[in-house]
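@channel sequence for tomorrow's demo:
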Amino acid sequence: MRRMWGSSGSTDLLSGATIMITGASSGIGAAAARLFAAEGASVVLMARREDRLRELAEEITAAGGKALASPGDVTLPGDVERVVKDAVKTYGTLDAAFNNAGWATAGTPLHETDDSVFTQALDVNLRGVWNCLKSQITVMLESGTGGSIVNTASIAGVLATGATAPYIAAKHAVIGLTRAAADEYGQRGIRVNALVVGSTRTELIEDVLRSAPELEEAYTTRSLQRRMAEPVEVAQAAAWLCSDRASFVTGAAVPVDGGWTAA
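structure tokens (generated this afternoon):
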């Protein structure tokens, strides 16, 4: 029987849910951690930067939320399995997950790209999602109550965005993997969706713009709104997909790109 959350009289979108978030130490992941907790979820935070992860968990707890810092590397199956087990041990279940950890490449033509860059792009962006799906789906099947999983893809998962071949290959594969998982587990009550994310004003982008402000136009000109997203705007889409208000949405690649892919 599918477990419902956010539906027991609470106005919070994610009330009662336990949600794992990867790449949670900064950017979209950190924004999601704060938002999901504010919407009533118990959040399990995974990232490699242990100090920032623990600071975020303490911040959320001090604000009255529930957060567990569980550092790890998504490219390592053992780390992912441990974090999933931490979620179940601490909160009794795993209802949803936001697989957001990623690593971007840019500016190097394919024929000049080192093999190590290709390997790392696929390891973090694709194998990381693969590792998470395997562990998360296993626990959700064992519970028998279903769940919701959201994977962070990119406009690079549906378009060629220029001199980023390894990242484009990985993000296209994330969308394919999302659809495959949605197809396999839809009748078991597990929904799997992807976010097609456009340029977002994360710490990484801000660092780039400080040293190369002329790139601001490149990050904004393709958006119909002529701006970048704020991390919380992406997190809001993820929160909806994790919630039961998106109960009939699965196998979707949902654009959060300011209209970039519509143009």
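heads up for whoever presents: The chain has eight helices and seven strands.
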